[in-house]
Amino acid sequence: MSVEFFDYKGQVAYREVPMVIDPEYNKKVEEMMHHHHARDNNGWTNNRSMRFAGSIPRDVYFNKIQETKDDQYWTRNKGINMKRWLNDNPVFRIGAKYIKGGK
Description:
This protein is α+β, with helices and mostly antiparallel strands and 103 residues long. It is built from 3 helices and 2 strands. A hairpin with a 2-residue loop joins strand 1 and strand 2. The protein is elongated, with a radius of gyration of 17 Å.
């Protein structure tokens, strides 16, 4: 949950605000993901036994679970919500191509 703090009659109060990913944060993540060891193989490990999809920021991950009140939000329907989010936010995706099943 993202919050904004403000002064309310001399007391510290807060209100929920929409989750916004900072452009500077996006840029730093893009640089880190660009150098990920699985990037050259479109996400596959060297022995091709596992494929990395990407990395959803912790704040986004838990905010979506809290917002939907569904602790299985990211894994439900074979991870379609995770795949869709990574396809919509390619900077966090490891492979260059869209992740199948997330359209």
